What we know:
Layout: H1 6-17, H2 28-33, E1 59-63, H3 64-69, H4 75-80, E2 114-118, E3 121-122, E4 144-150, H5 155-158, E5 165-171, E6 177-187, E7 194-205, E8 208-219, E9 222-223, E10 242-243, E11 246-248, E12 254-256, E13 268-270, E14 273-287, E15 290-307, E16 311-317, H6 333-337, E17 347-353, E18 360-379, E19 385-406, H7 408-417, H8 431-437, E20 438-463, E21 466-484, H9 487-490, E22 502-518, E23 523-534, E24 538-550, E25 555-566, H10 570-574, E26 578-583, E27 595-601, E28 609-620, E29 628-644, H11 648-656, H12 660-665, E30 678-680, E31 682-702, E32 705-721, E33 724-725, E34 729-731, E35 735-736, E36 740-750, E37 753-762, E38 765-767, E39 773-774, E40 777-787, E41 792-799, E42 828-836
Parallel strand pairs: 2-5, 27-30, 34-38
Antiparallel strand pairs: 1-4, 2-3, 4-5, 6-7, 6-42, 7-8, 8-14, 9-13, 10-17, 11-12, 14-15, 15-18, 16-17, 18-19, 19-20, 20-21, 21-22, 22-23, 23-24, 24-25, 25-28, 26-27, 28-29, 29-31, 31-32, 32-33, 32-36, 34-35, 36-37, 37-40, 38-39, 40-41, 41-42
Amino acid sequence: xxKRSKLSNSINVALLASVSAAxxxxxxxxxxxxxxNVERIAVTGSRxxxxxxxxxxxxxxxxxxxIRSEGFTTVDELLQAQTSMAGAAVGSSTNNGSxxxxxxxxxxxxxxxxxxxLNGRRMVNSGSGADSSVDLNAIPVAMIARVEILKDGASxxxxxxxxxxxxxxxxxxxxxxxxxxVQGGMTDKSDGENGEISALxxxxxxxGNYTFGAAYSERKGVIQSDRDWTDPGNSSTxxxxxxxxxxxxxxxxxxxxxxxxxxxxxxxxxTPSKRxxxxxxxxxxxxxxxxxxxDILYTKRKSNQQLAAQxxxxxxxxxxxxxxxxxxxxxxxDMIDAGMAPNDDGQIDYRKxxxxxxxxxxxxxxxxxxxxxxxxxxxxINTGMNWDVSYTYGNNKAETAVENSINATLMADAIYAxxxxxxxxxxxTDQALLDSVAYTEKADGGNExxxxxxxxxxxxxxxxxxxxxxxxxxxYRYESGYYNxxxxxxAGEGTAAQQDPTDGNYNVIxxxxxxxxxxxxxxxGEFALRFDDYSTFGNASTWKIGLTYEATDDLMIRTVAATGxxxxxxxxxxxxxxxxxxYLEDPWGNEQDEQILVNYTSDEDLEPEESExxxxxxxxxxxxxxxxxxTLDYWRFKVKNAITRLDTQNGLNNCFAGDQATCExxxxxxxxxxxxxxxxxxxxGYQDTSGIDFNLAxxxxxxxxxxxxxxxxxxxxxxxxxxxxxTNTIDGNFGAYAQVRNNFSIKAAQDDWSVxxxxxxxxxxxxxxxxxxxxxxxxxxxxxxYFINDSWMLSAGVKNLTDEEPSRVSNGxxxxxxxxxxxxxxxxxxxxxxxxx
Length: 837
């Protein structure tokens, strides 16, 4: 039997108990294993199989029991509750522009800089097409055994995208029996219902195990205006229309527009979604120490978002003498008397919110497949070596639509043909006329991935302090993606922003190696080196050096230095032009709306991003307090040559201040003409972020109860990007970079029942746009579980027990706040039942 020090044991407890504020990890499996022989295991962040989880890199582990205790029904909700997250990762609360996807944003460095693995192997990028990140909706919670979050740069081990860290989702395996789980919830306002039903079946043979599962989940929407704290919207595009900023009053006179349109009555805080998933895992011994492993996952997602009716903003050509009046707009005397006149281009601004047609209803129908198979075995070399070969295939296809879209060209022609019908200042009732300009926008896209990998690991030779372990391997990966917008959008004839198609692919060949060297009984070094050769930009080399030092039986000190990179994605290389209506302030005061069209462009000559990361910390388990362990880690990530779009608002401000070079960079015309405002991808960006993570885990017995206490704190020291300091700020465009985030939980258990209280704290921040303070918020949650017998278990809980309102943000992305950061739906009840046979 392998002996473990007190520190070694406490590290495992700390890893298993290091979870989010509302989470607590079950450590029963760990306790059961204490008396068993410890086999070599794979740990996220290394390809070397180890006898312990003691590594130089900090890892957070969240198991299925913790996921259930807080009522999480999606992976993104689970991850965004972690204190190590920042920014504003899109998810169920993102109504505008998300296409229903859900992503992770570790350290707030961007979802594209966090690598997502499934059972240690890459997951295909997924969403609506040519995506740069994994859609976490493709992974059902029902199949998860645990989630491991590596909070350290890992490009030297896994290659591109692991700049900020790695999320490795481990699925349920080696299951025996039949289990059904049913859970659901709703808000105390009787909306936002959600539910999931899943089934798991597994059986053992003399030489293997086969596990199968299926899951169905549904989430219903919550309309923004149904929350009384919501700030009403104030769009300049109103249902009855305006001309040159003027509207008709009750007497038919042209007057200045004074009222805006409240779009919150049509938009969601929680978006509706349905998901259907099938999954399976198998392990089969083939003899001669060869094992065949495989897993398969299929998920269909049908999701919706809804926005206010299409805002039609048209630049109408004003008739001049001799023009055909059916092909231009005629200014009558009343309009001229009201001060209306064509601009320098001979056009006049017409705006109408197309409520007569109906709200924009976005829908997505996505199918995501992933199949992975591998062979592994051992060689009778030295003390024994392990080899493995694997192939992973991923495919994602999506069909998207936007109902009640408007064809701008046909609408302009309809106005020219009968302008009086569009200028009544009253709702339009001519259905045939409305139908002639409306259509359903349709698009399709997808992603495909092939990965071949082979590796060898084992022990090279012995030193006085122990064996030198190694891992070497090679990998071939092919990635492709495409996205085909609706032809009307490609032609720029819609009232929505113009967008070009995307289509491209690349491949990469990689070789990698790791070595673990015990210099002394207390000091161990970990070294990794990787070389990647891309078909697009060439090659990249990365390295990683880690040290662990067991200073005493109670204290371990650890540190890691590493380099990393991120290759440009298909959409960044081949995406073409894509329009986006961003929340911006026009310093010239020309724009009537706070949402201003920005043309986003890609670049086939982009180079990879480069990064450096450093972590240093300790793991301490005081011998005088049995069951307690704490970790303290300093971390810093620096990214240069970042693929980014520069801050558009900053560009507007600098151009307004007289910086002509900035005006040209953003295509800003004379006198603040923003009609061709452009923001191109480029390699000039950088990020520099640092902070401190602290975790306390304590298990003890008192009052005839088993107690578990966990506290997770992240203190952000600095977050700087492209010359702007975002430390402790919040904004609708960039999300939140709170200086303090804290999660606390306490659990009491006895025999068949347990009760847990957990809270989540997001500290006070500075409003980036207004310069004012945004209030801190503390969410309280409770849950309980009860085992009726070996076959039945009940659970229930309340999230946001005190119904805390989200903090107000002046430039919030929706409803006067940032829904990706704060809870916008309020107090929620959830309950579930597990039946095992």
